[in-house]
Amino acid sequence: MKLFILFFCTVFGAIAQERNYQSTEISIDPEINGTLLTSGNHKNASLAILIAGSGPTDRDGNQSQLKNNSLKYLAEGLAEKGIDVFRYDKRIIAQMSKGVVQEEKLTFEDEVNDAFLVVNHFKKKYKKITLIGHSEGALIGILVAQKAPIYKFVSLSGAGNSSATLIEEQIEKNAPQLKEESQKILNQLKKGELVENVSSYLAPIFRKSVQPYLISWFKYEPTKEIAKLRIPILITQGTYDLQVESKEAKLLKEAQSRAQLLLIEGMNHVLKEVKTPQENQQSYLNPNLPISHKLIDGIAQFIKE
After folding, report:
1. Ranges 98-102, 181-185, 228-232: which has the least confidence
2. Which of 56, 174, 204, 219 pairs with 297 at a CA distance of 20 to 30 A?
3. Cβ within 8 Å of residue 243, ≥6 positions away
């Protein structure tokens, strides 16, 4: 009897954990690869595309030293609710694996063009495509949604101020002694001019090879760009996000009054719900910690309504 009960529990547990979606690897081009989760529910032919944030971020929301699986869990959570989801590695991930990264040639528009490629790959199969842009990916999604046939848009931890303003605020908050030098550098970059001399303290942010990317990125004001959209929009933000504060979401909402605003208490930048500064920092390195269920529920409801 004990053996039967043990067998029954093992089998039942395996069935209970079986996921109700399928996973397929897809290559958009040789350097853009991703994962499509399909729920089998094609009544509305709806697809959500996740666009990752800044830096060399992969389809799961991870970087080499920062593994948290934020986008992986978001994709799986939405798929569990019957929504097809595609998430992809940024092009730089493939380039890094090949050792052929030319940082000085990268621009923000490259990221936008790659998102266009992804949308174009799926637009014939899916009549309703929702873009979900995380952090820097939110601005990318906004720019794509202005020209591509996008059904809905979700800004997830997206900034309202320009990236130059955010960098300036971060430096002023964390390294006030570097404020004066950083302001001079930012002012020059905003004019489209390269900066020859950068101190070793600021080189990780403003090194010569990354300046062309920053110049191309600084041109865009998220509030001005989101105001141009005429599709349903959800602006969602965590109240414990140390990288993009709640005020940024409110700026986007002011610029796009028809948008829905969802503030999630205790959620941080990697979409985990935390209570202390220590938990906040540790969550960036914890791939096993689930993301906010309130976030998954909120986005799923927005897409389906």
Report:
1. 98-102
2. 56
3. 135, 157, 170, 269
